C-alpha cells in the first residue's frame, strides 16, 4: 500500500513540505509531479500521529488535497489517537473529548481507520470503519529483546488496573504466558491522586514482572505498582507501554527497564521501538 507518511517524511510516497504559519495554523504542500504519477485507484494510507489539534488538522488537509487529486481509496493509520483516554465524561462540566475527535474523523469519510492500541473499545465504537491494532507483536518484540540479555528469567505479565485486565489476558493467550498478576489502585478523579495499590497475588518469589499498558504519561501508576510488587518479592519490575509520553521524564521509580514505541514521539533513555513495524 502507498503511504503518505507524516511520521517518517523520508518514507512518504509523495514528497511534501510541512510548515506552521505565524498564527499557528499548520500547512502542507505536496510534490504535484510525484502525486500525478501515482495510480489514483490504488489504496493510499495517511500514516500519522494525532498528538494534538494541529496533527489532526494536518491529516485532514492531506485528505482534502488527495480528494481533489481524485485518489479513490484513502485510509488513515493512526499511531496515537488524540483524546482516546477521554472516552467518557468523568465529571460535570467536562467534555466527551473522544466523541468530538471521532466526529471530526468521521466527516472526513476515510475508507478505513486503523489505530494502534487505542485506550479502550470506545474509540472503535465511535469512529466509523475503524479497527484496532493490538500491541501483541510489540510486546513480543520487547520480551524477546529483554530475554537476549536476561536469559533464564521467566516473565509474568502484570495488569496495572482493572481497565487493562481484559487486554492483558488476550495478550497472555497470544504469547502463551500463563502467569498473570492482577493489580488494582484507587484514583481520585478530581485530583488525580493515586492510592491503595494492591494485588491478589500473595508472593512473587524473585520473579521478573512486566507491567503492560497502553500509555505512560507521568508514570505514577507504574511507580506505585512496581513498589508494591517489589514489596511482595518481585525480583525485577519492567514496563512495556505502547505510547510513551513520559511527561515527568523517562525514569520511573522502582521500574528497572522500560520499553515503548515512537507512536507519540521518539523517546531517549528507554528502549524505543519504531511504530512503523507494527502498523
How far apart the termini lie comes to 12 Å
Helix-and-strand structural type: alpha/beta
- What would CATH call the class of the largest domain? Alpha Beta
- Uncertain residue ranges: none
Please indicate the percent range of residues in DSSP E strands (runs of 2 or more).
25-35%
pLDDT averaged residue by residue: 95
The shape, in one word, is globular
**Which series of helices and strands comes N to C?**
EEEHEHEHEHEHEHEEEHEEE
How many β strands by DSSP?
14
**CATH-defined topology of the largest domain:** Rossmann fold
The percent range for helix content is 25-40%
Count of helical stretches: 7
- Biggest sheet layout: 7 strands, mixed
Just name the CATH architecture of the largest domain: 3-Layer(aba) Sandwich
